[in-house]
Specification:
Length: 55
Amino acid sequence: MKKGTFYLLIIILTATLIYNIFSKVEDQEDQDSSEIKEEYILYQVMGTVGSTRFS
């Protein structure tokens, strides 16, 4: 198994964990802020994947 795929797995697992935590918080908050959070997480994950891929 390549190092890149290993990092990708860790990133996906971490992203899933963070998403689950945020979705629990979303139940207590309004829809607008939760949508912004989802987009933010998505960009964070994409940025992390991008930086690990090119480094």
